[in-house]
Amino acid sequence: MSSALVSFVLPCFNAGQYLQQTLDSIGLQTYTHWECVAIDDGSSDTTLSILQTAAQQDTRFKIISRENRGLIASLNEGIAAASGEWIARIDADDICAPDRLVKQLDYCQMNQVDICGSWVGFIGDRRGEWHTPETDAEVRLALLFNTPIAHPSILARAALLKAHPYPDDAPHAEDYALWCQIAATTSARFANIPEVLLHYRTHPGQVTQAKKAALLITAQRVREQYARTALPVALQPLAAEFAKLAEPSRILNHAEWLWMVDFFSQLLALRPESRGALGEIWLDTLQRSHGVNLLDFSRVLKLALQMPPPKAERKKVLKQSLRLAMSDFVWQKIKP
Protein backbone atom coordinates (compact mmCIF):
# COMPACT_ATOMS: atom_id res chain seq x y z
CA MET A 1 0.00 0.00 0.00
CA SER A 2 1.39 3.41 -0.96
CA SER A 3 2.07 6.04 1.70
CA ALA A 4 2.56 8.87 -0.79
CA LEU A 5 0.93 12.24 -0.26
CA VAL A 6 -1.88 12.86 -2.76
CA SER A 7 -2.89 16.41 -3.66
CA PHE A 8 -6.46 16.94 -4.80
CA VAL A 9 -6.60 19.92 -7.16
CA LEU A 10 -10.05 21.49 -6.97
CA PRO A 11 -10.80 24.56 -9.14
CA CYS A 12 -13.92 26.43 -8.00
CA PHE A 13 -15.94 29.18 -9.65
CA ASN A 14 -19.39 30.02 -8.26
CA ALA A 15 -19.69 26.41 -7.14
CA GLY A 16 -21.66 26.97 -3.95
CA GLN A 17 -24.64 24.84 -4.95
CA TYR A 18 -22.80 21.50 -5.01
CA LEU A 19 -19.38 22.22 -3.46
CA GLN A 20 -20.12 20.88 0.03
CA GLN A 21 -20.98 17.45 -1.38
CA THR A 22 -17.66 17.39 -3.21
CA LEU A 23 -15.71 18.39 -0.10
CA ASP A 24 -17.54 15.76 1.96
CA SER A 25 -16.57 13.04 -0.53
CA ILE A 26 -12.92 14.10 -0.31
CA GLY A 27 -13.05 14.07 3.48
CA LEU A 28 -14.49 10.53 3.48
CA GLN A 29 -11.54 9.00 1.58
CA THR A 30 -10.33 5.80 3.23
CA TYR A 31 -6.81 6.79 2.15
CA THR A 32 -6.13 9.66 4.53
CA HIS A 33 -2.68 10.98 3.47
CA TRP A 34 -4.01 13.72 1.20
CA GLU A 35 -4.23 17.46 0.90
CA CYS A 36 -6.75 19.44 -1.14
CA VAL A 37 -5.58 22.56 -2.97
CA ALA A 38 -8.80 24.46 -3.71
CA ILE A 39 -8.63 27.49 -6.00
CA ASP A 40 -11.41 30.04 -5.62
CA ASP A 41 -11.35 31.62 -9.08
CA GLY A 42 -12.99 34.95 -8.21
CA SER A 43 -16.34 33.51 -7.16
CA SER A 44 -19.20 35.86 -6.27
CA ASP A 45 -21.37 33.32 -4.42
CA THR A 46 -20.80 31.28 -1.25
CA THR A 47 -17.87 29.29 -2.65
CA LEU A 48 -15.14 30.98 -0.62
CA SER A 49 -17.03 30.80 2.69
CA ILE A 50 -17.69 27.07 2.18
CA LEU A 51 -13.98 26.48 1.49
CA GLN A 52 -12.95 28.55 4.51
CA THR A 53 -15.24 26.55 6.77
CA ALA A 54 -13.78 23.30 5.44
CA ALA A 55 -10.23 24.57 6.04
CA GLN A 56 -11.10 25.55 9.62
CA GLN A 57 -12.41 22.05 10.29
CA ASP A 58 -9.63 20.14 8.46
CA THR A 59 -6.17 21.63 7.89
CA ARG A 60 -5.64 19.35 4.89
CA PHE A 61 -7.76 21.79 2.88
CA LYS A 62 -5.59 24.60 1.44
CA ILE A 63 -7.23 27.62 -0.18
CA ILE A 64 -6.01 29.94 -2.93
CA SER A 65 -8.42 32.83 -3.51
CA ARG A 66 -7.91 35.59 -6.08
CA GLU A 67 -9.54 37.29 -9.07
CA ASN A 68 -11.02 35.31 -11.92
CA ARG A 69 -8.42 33.91 -14.34
CA GLY A 70 -10.24 30.93 -15.82
CA LEU A 71 -10.05 27.16 -15.49
CA ILE A 72 -6.72 26.55 -17.23
CA ALA A 73 -4.92 29.09 -15.04
CA SER A 74 -6.56 27.61 -11.94
CA LEU A 75 -5.52 24.07 -12.82
CA ASN A 76 -1.91 25.01 -13.46
CA GLU A 77 -1.75 27.17 -10.34
CA GLY A 78 -3.19 24.40 -8.20
CA ILE A 79 -0.75 21.82 -9.56
CA ALA A 80 2.21 24.17 -9.03
CA ALA A 81 1.15 24.70 -5.40
CA ALA A 82 0.58 21.01 -4.70
CA SER A 83 3.01 19.23 -2.39
CA GLY A 84 1.97 15.67 -3.21
CA GLU A 85 3.69 13.01 -5.25
CA TRP A 86 0.37 12.41 -7.00
CA ILE A 87 -2.30 14.80 -8.29
CA ALA A 88 -5.96 13.80 -7.98
CA ARG A 89 -8.36 15.89 -10.03
CA ILE A 90 -11.93 16.57 -9.07
CA ASP A 91 -14.44 19.24 -10.05
CA ALA A 92 -16.51 21.26 -7.60
CA ASP A 93 -19.78 19.52 -8.49
CA ASP A 94 -18.63 15.88 -8.56
CA ILE A 95 -18.49 13.16 -5.92
CA CYS A 96 -15.76 10.55 -5.59
CA ALA A 97 -16.15 7.10 -4.07
CA PRO A 98 -14.61 6.68 -0.57
CA ASP A 99 -12.09 4.12 -1.85
CA ARG A 100 -11.11 6.07 -4.97
CA LEU A 101 -7.57 6.97 -3.85
CA VAL A 102 -6.84 3.53 -2.38
CA LYS A 103 -7.79 1.77 -5.59
CA GLN A 104 -6.06 4.22 -7.94
CA LEU A 105 -2.81 4.26 -5.97
CA ASP A 106 -2.70 0.46 -5.77
CA TYR A 107 -3.50 0.15 -9.48
CA CYS A 108 -0.80 2.62 -10.49
CA GLN A 109 1.78 0.91 -8.30
CA MET A 110 0.97 -2.59 -9.55
CA ASN A 111 0.78 -1.64 -13.24
CA GLN A 112 3.40 1.13 -13.48
CA VAL A 113 0.77 3.64 -14.61
CA ASP A 114 1.40 7.41 -14.72
CA ILE A 115 -2.12 8.74 -15.47
CA CYS A 116 -5.03 6.71 -14.15
CA GLY A 117 -8.72 7.49 -14.59
CA SER A 118 -11.78 5.39 -13.90
CA TRP A 119 -15.26 4.69 -15.14
CA VAL A 120 -17.78 7.32 -14.09
CA GLY A 121 -21.43 7.27 -13.13
CA PHE A 122 -23.60 10.23 -14.17
CA ILE A 123 -25.72 12.18 -11.72
CA GLY A 124 -27.85 15.29 -12.18
CA ASP A 125 -29.49 15.72 -15.59
CA ARG A 126 -28.18 12.40 -16.91
CA ARG A 127 -28.08 8.80 -15.76
CA GLY A 128 -25.95 5.85 -16.74
CA GLU A 129 -22.22 5.13 -16.79
CA TRP A 130 -19.26 5.95 -19.03
CA HIS A 131 -17.02 2.92 -19.48
CA THR A 132 -13.66 4.28 -20.59
CA PRO A 133 -10.97 2.08 -22.28
CA GLU A 134 -8.70 0.33 -19.81
CA THR A 135 -5.21 -0.19 -21.25
CA ASP A 136 -2.51 2.24 -22.36
CA ALA A 137 -2.75 1.05 -25.98
CA GLU A 138 -6.54 1.47 -26.01
CA VAL A 139 -6.38 4.94 -24.46
CA ARG A 140 -3.75 6.14 -26.95
CA LEU A 141 -5.85 4.82 -29.84
CA ALA A 142 -9.07 6.35 -28.51
CA LEU A 143 -7.35 9.75 -28.23
CA LEU A 144 -7.52 9.87 -32.03
CA PHE A 145 -11.27 10.34 -31.69
CA ASN A 146 -11.96 12.12 -28.41
CA THR A 147 -10.81 12.14 -24.81
CA PRO A 148 -11.12 8.60 -23.39
CA ILE A 149 -10.39 9.73 -19.82
CA ALA A 150 -12.86 11.38 -17.48
CA HIS A 151 -10.87 14.44 -16.46
CA PRO A 152 -12.08 14.76 -12.82
CA SER A 153 -11.41 11.06 -12.25
CA ILE A 154 -7.66 11.11 -12.86
CA LEU A 155 -4.78 10.39 -10.55
CA ALA A 156 -1.48 11.43 -12.15
CA ARG A 157 2.15 11.73 -11.17
CA ALA A 158 2.70 15.30 -10.01
CA ALA A 159 6.10 15.53 -11.70
CA LEU A 160 4.49 14.72 -15.05
CA LEU A 161 1.78 17.38 -14.75
CA LYS A 162 4.24 19.99 -13.45
CA ALA A 163 6.48 19.33 -16.48
CA HIS A 164 3.50 19.43 -18.87
CA PRO A 165 1.06 22.18 -17.81
CA TYR A 166 -2.37 22.47 -19.36
CA PRO A 167 -2.00 24.37 -22.67
CA ASP A 168 -3.51 27.84 -22.48
CA ASP A 169 -4.50 27.78 -26.17
CA ALA A 170 -7.01 24.93 -25.70
CA PRO A 171 -10.02 26.50 -23.94
CA HIS A 172 -12.74 24.02 -22.94
CA ALA A 173 -10.66 21.10 -24.29
CA GLU A 174 -7.59 21.58 -22.08
CA ASP A 175 -7.62 17.99 -20.81
CA TYR A 176 -7.91 16.48 -24.30
CA ALA A 177 -5.07 18.69 -25.52
CA LEU A 178 -2.88 17.73 -22.56
CA TRP A 179 -3.42 13.97 -22.90
CA CYS A 180 -2.64 14.16 -26.63
CA GLN A 181 0.49 16.19 -25.93
CA ILE A 182 1.70 13.74 -23.28
CA ALA A 183 0.86 10.72 -25.45
CA ALA A 184 2.70 12.20 -28.43
CA THR A 185 5.84 13.34 -26.61
CA THR A 186 6.38 11.00 -23.65
CA SER A 187 6.33 7.32 -22.74
CA ALA A 188 3.90 7.93 -19.88
CA ARG A 189 1.45 5.07 -19.37
CA PHE A 190 -2.30 5.68 -19.31
CA ALA A 191 -5.03 3.49 -17.83
CA ASN A 192 -8.61 3.54 -16.62
CA ILE A 193 -9.80 1.35 -13.76
CA PRO A 194 -12.92 -0.50 -14.98
CA GLU A 195 -14.97 0.54 -11.99
CA VAL A 196 -17.05 3.63 -11.16
CA LEU A 197 -14.94 5.69 -8.74
CA LEU A 198 -16.40 9.10 -9.58
CA HIS A 199 -19.95 10.40 -9.91
CA TYR A 200 -19.97 13.11 -12.58
CA ARG A 201 -22.68 15.75 -12.34
CA THR A 202 -24.25 17.08 -15.55
CA HIS A 203 -26.25 20.31 -15.51
CA PRO A 204 -26.95 23.27 -17.83
CA GLY A 205 -24.37 25.52 -16.17
CA GLN A 206 -21.36 23.44 -17.17
CA VAL A 207 -18.73 25.02 -19.42
CA THR A 208 -18.94 22.13 -21.89
CA GLN A 209 -22.65 22.83 -22.31
CA ALA A 210 -22.34 26.61 -22.63
CA LYS A 211 -19.23 26.70 -24.81
CA LYS A 212 -19.82 23.89 -27.29
CA ALA A 213 -18.78 25.88 -30.36
CA ALA A 214 -15.38 26.80 -28.93
CA LEU A 215 -14.92 23.26 -27.65
CA LEU A 216 -15.52 21.76 -31.10
CA ILE A 217 -13.05 24.09 -32.79
CA THR A 218 -10.33 23.37 -30.24
CA ALA A 219 -10.93 19.63 -30.21
CA GLN A 220 -10.82 19.47 -34.01
CA ARG A 221 -7.41 21.16 -34.06
CA VAL A 222 -6.05 18.94 -31.28
CA ARG A 223 -7.36 15.79 -32.97
CA GLU A 224 -5.72 16.58 -36.30
CA GLN A 225 -2.38 17.47 -34.70
CA TYR A 226 -2.36 14.21 -32.75
CA ALA A 227 -3.45 12.14 -35.75
CA ARG A 228 -0.53 13.40 -37.83
CA THR A 229 1.90 11.56 -35.57
CA ALA A 230 -0.20 8.95 -33.73
CA LEU A 231 -1.73 7.26 -36.79
CA PRO A 232 0.27 4.50 -38.48
CA VAL A 233 2.60 6.03 -41.09
CA ALA A 234 0.53 4.62 -43.96
CA LEU A 235 -2.57 6.45 -42.71
CA GLN A 236 -0.97 9.76 -41.73
CA PRO A 237 -1.73 11.38 -45.14
CA LEU A 238 -5.42 10.89 -44.24
CA ALA A 239 -5.09 12.76 -40.93
CA ALA A 240 -6.99 15.92 -41.97
CA GLU A 241 -9.98 14.09 -43.46
CA PHE A 242 -10.02 11.60 -40.61
CA ALA A 243 -9.97 14.34 -37.95
CA LYS A 244 -12.93 16.02 -39.61
CA LEU A 245 -15.06 12.88 -39.86
CA ALA A 246 -14.05 11.56 -36.43
CA GLU A 247 -15.63 14.51 -34.62
CA PRO A 248 -18.22 12.82 -32.34
CA SER A 249 -20.90 15.46 -32.96
CA ARG A 250 -20.61 15.45 -36.77
CA ILE A 251 -23.43 13.81 -38.75
CA LEU A 252 -21.97 11.70 -41.56
CA ASN A 253 -23.56 11.06 -44.95
CA HIS A 254 -23.43 7.59 -46.47
CA ALA A 255 -20.24 8.21 -48.46
CA GLU A 256 -18.51 9.48 -45.33
CA TRP A 257 -19.70 6.43 -43.38
CA LEU A 258 -18.17 4.16 -46.02
CA TRP A 259 -14.92 6.13 -45.82
CA MET A 260 -14.80 5.54 -42.08
CA VAL A 261 -15.60 1.83 -42.46
CA ASP A 262 -12.59 1.48 -44.76
CA PHE A 263 -10.47 3.53 -42.37
CA PHE A 264 -11.40 1.31 -39.41
CA SER A 265 -10.43 -1.80 -41.39
CA GLN A 266 -7.07 -0.33 -42.37
CA LEU A 267 -6.37 0.85 -38.83
CA LEU A 268 -7.17 -2.57 -37.37
CA ALA A 269 -4.87 -4.27 -39.90
CA LEU A 270 -2.01 -1.93 -39.01
CA ARG A 271 -2.72 -1.79 -35.26
CA PRO A 272 -4.26 -5.10 -34.12
CA GLU A 273 -4.00 -3.94 -30.50
CA SER A 274 -6.66 -1.32 -31.29
CA ARG A 275 -9.36 -3.99 -31.56
CA GLY A 276 -10.78 -3.43 -28.08
CA ALA A 277 -11.02 0.35 -28.33
CA LEU A 278 -12.46 0.38 -31.86
CA GLY A 279 -15.52 -1.69 -30.96
CA GLU A 280 -17.37 1.17 -29.31
CA ILE A 281 -15.94 3.79 -31.69
CA TRP A 282 -17.23 2.28 -34.94
CA LEU A 283 -20.64 1.72 -33.31
CA ASP A 284 -20.82 5.40 -32.33
CA THR A 285 -19.80 6.30 -35.90
CA LEU A 286 -22.67 4.21 -37.28
CA GLN A 287 -25.08 5.89 -34.89
CA ARG A 288 -24.23 9.35 -36.24
CA SER A 289 -24.29 8.29 -39.93
CA HIS A 290 -27.36 9.00 -42.06
CA GLY A 291 -28.51 7.12 -45.14
CA VAL A 292 -27.53 3.63 -44.00
CA ASN A 293 -29.73 0.71 -45.03
CA LEU A 294 -29.94 -3.07 -45.25
CA LEU A 295 -27.10 -3.15 -47.81
CA ASP A 296 -24.80 -1.96 -45.01
CA PHE A 297 -25.67 -4.92 -42.81
CA SER A 298 -22.82 -7.11 -44.09
CA ARG A 299 -20.33 -4.29 -43.45
CA VAL A 300 -21.61 -3.84 -39.92
CA LEU A 301 -21.53 -7.58 -39.26
CA LYS A 302 -17.91 -7.70 -40.40
CA LEU A 303 -17.02 -4.80 -38.12
CA ALA A 304 -18.81 -6.46 -35.20
CA LEU A 305 -16.89 -9.70 -35.71
CA GLN A 306 -13.52 -7.99 -36.12
CA MET A 307 -14.03 -5.31 -33.45
CA PRO A 308 -16.75 -6.47 -31.03
CA PRO A 309 -18.49 -3.64 -29.13
CA PRO A 310 -18.38 -3.90 -25.34
CA LYS A 311 -21.14 -5.85 -23.63
CA ALA A 312 -22.47 -2.64 -22.12
CA GLU A 313 -23.41 -1.49 -25.65
CA ARG A 314 -25.69 -4.46 -26.44
CA LYS A 315 -28.82 -2.29 -26.50
CA LYS A 316 -27.18 0.11 -28.92
CA VAL A 317 -26.11 -2.79 -31.17
CA LEU A 318 -29.68 -4.13 -31.27
CA LYS A 319 -31.09 -0.67 -31.93
CA GLN A 320 -28.71 -0.03 -34.82
CA SER A 321 -29.36 -3.51 -36.27
CA LEU A 322 -33.10 -2.75 -36.30
CA ARG A 323 -32.35 0.57 -37.95
CA LEU A 324 -30.41 -1.14 -40.75
CA ALA A 325 -33.14 -3.72 -41.27
CA MET A 326 -35.84 -1.12 -41.91
CA SER A 327 -33.56 1.46 -43.69
CA ASP A 328 -32.64 4.85 -42.35
CA PHE A 329 -35.50 6.55 -44.19
CA VAL A 330 -38.12 4.54 -42.31
CA TRP A 331 -36.15 4.73 -39.07
CA GLN A 332 -36.07 8.54 -39.10
CA LYS A 333 -39.85 8.56 -39.61
CA ILE A 334 -40.63 6.37 -36.61
CA LYS A 335 -37.77 7.36 -34.30
CA PRO A 336 -39.60 10.27 -32.55
Q: Explain this structure to me?
A:
The protein is of the alpha/beta class and 336 residues long. The chain contains 14 helices and nine strands. It has helices spanning 19-27, 47-57, 71-81, 100-111, 136-142, 158-163, 174-185, 207-210, 212-230, 239-245, 254-270, 275-287, 297-306, 314-334, and strands at residues 6-12, 34-41, 61-66, 86-89, 95-96, 115-124, 129-130, 155-157, 190-202. Strands 1, 2, 3, 4, 5, 6, 7, 8 and 9 form a nine-stranded mixed beta sheet that branches. Helix 2 (47-57) links the parallel strand 2 (34-41) and strand 3 (61-66). The mean pLDDT is 93.
What's the overall geometry? globular
CATH H level, superfamily name of the largest domain: Spore Coat Polysaccharide Biosynthesis Protein SpsA, Chain A
Give the integer mean of the pLDDT values: 93
Query: What is the fold named in CATH at topology level of the largest domain?
Result: Spore Coat Polysaccharide Biosynthesis Protein SpsA, Chain A
Helix segment count?
Answer: 14
Family: Belongs to the glycosyltransferase 2 family.
Pfam family, one: Glycos_transf_2
InterPro entries: Glyco_trans_2-like (IPR001173), Glycosyltransf_2 (IPR050834), Nucleotide-diphossugar_trans (IPR029044)
Keywords: Glycosyltransferase, Transferase
